[in-house]
Design goal:
The protein is α/β, with parallel strands linked by helices and about 475 residues long. Helices cover about 40% and strands about 20% of the residues. The structure holds adenosine-5'-diphosphate and aspartyl phosphate. Adenosine-5'-diphosphate binds next to loops. Its EC number is 2.7.2.4.
Amino acid sequence: MKVAKFGGTSLANAEQIKKVCNIIRADQNRRLVVVSAPGKRYKEDDKVTDLLIRYAEVFLQKGEARAEKEAVFNRYREIVRELGLPAEVGQKIEAELEAVLANHAGLSPDRFVDAVKAAGEDNSAKVVAHYLRSLGEDAHYVNPREAGMLVTDEAGNAHVLPAAYERLKKLRDRQGILVFPGFFGYTEAGELVTFSRGGSDITGSILAAAVKAEVYENFTDVDSVYVVNPNLVENPVEIKEITYREMRELSYSGFSVFHEEALLPAYQAEIPVCIKNTNNPSAPGTMIVAERPASVNRVSGVACDTGFCSIYVSKYLMHKEIGFGRKLLQILEEEGISYEHTPSGIDNISVILRERDLTPAKEARIVERIQSELQVDDIAVQHDLALVMIVGEGMRQSVGTTAKATVALAAAQINLDMINQGSSEVSMMFGVKAEDADRAVIALYHAFFGKEEEREKAHSLSSLTV
Ligand SMILES: Nc1ncnc2c1ncn2[C@@H]1O[C@H](COP(=O)(O)OP(=O)(O)O)[C@@H](O)[C@H]1O
Ligand SMILES: N[C@@H](CC(=O)OP(=O)(O)O)C(=O)O
């Protein structure tokens, strides 16, 4: 049995849904299908999930949101009409959607937003199941509550509960093609909660692990995962094979093509993952596997994510002060903030955080507490940081990778605020100003994957004025 997940771009309109159904029908083993909500049809378009979020927010503010509701209904109307589904199907789907949007009484705002968001994938699954049946297939919509997609009670950020796997395993015994909506599950008390954004990838991975799928196919709109974001570099090198560890680091640091939390279930159950293109299904795609052969080029990708900030703290003899690190991190814990990295020196430490977690009020309180409770010599908060990551199995063992990277960044006149070779065996991280992030990625791409003359230019210090 294969699990095939189709992302928002694969369900954006009727034409895309037809491609999805052709792919499903082309392989009898594609029996468990996960779908996202309709995504963008063109660059400036809206994803249905964003339309639904807007609906919920406006409704909560004003008590009605007619235009926002119309925008959602119009997307499904267009799809149902262009797929040629009977009018009753359209009416049924509209009635069910109407019921979700109207059901706010007794729900907290968080619960309401999650329920509305989830309607995007839920309706996609119903539409795809109907369309497959209209083609003569034995296809069934699966309700995640009834199937046992049990998750934690964290609004918009749910995590799977271990008990879910035993229950979802039973999907193996069902007949026909099962169409499962991605992105959400239910708490043990039966409340609907969504995963974080992009979370249909997580649903697919959980299901693949639960049914012990032969492969988890993740269909999107690119032929493969590339060594760099294809929006930054034209025709970048394709990745044929990548390890779970490498992909995990790259997903964390900006490869939005696969959700970072989607790696774990597949990895633990040893299910290979294949990223493929709905618009070009015969392309082999990228395989994510446990091990890959050592290659000449030990770097497998360069990624970057923005939206970080750092709290730099220095105190003479910090390294001898027992409990300093714990007390520092405890202040963050008490303020409800998780930290990302903690590069440190003898008398100093930086704590890297996600900017979105730090409101101005929180920042002022944290700075004040660190000063008064830890008696530090110096403290500074730096905003608008980007983390650029080079990732590759074996890279850390090969001589000269850091030099190659730092020379390339220097040649591109990029100032490094932080280097963290840290504990990860497969990655190296550079902190740069957000405004330099794209140039840094492009410089590193040319240094590690460019044509010979580009590599030479990136390695040359001659352009530097030190
Ligand atoms: N390294 C990368 N390789 C491939 N795609 C990438 C990479 N980094 C970012 N992307 C982006 O990820 C997009 C696919 O992810 P996403 O938009 O979430 O698709 P879907 O709607 O199928 O879930 C691609 O169109 C591409 O713009
Ligand atoms: N539709 C949800 C979940 C998801 O996974 O979507 P996509 O497959 O388009 O990334 C979102 O936009 O967050």
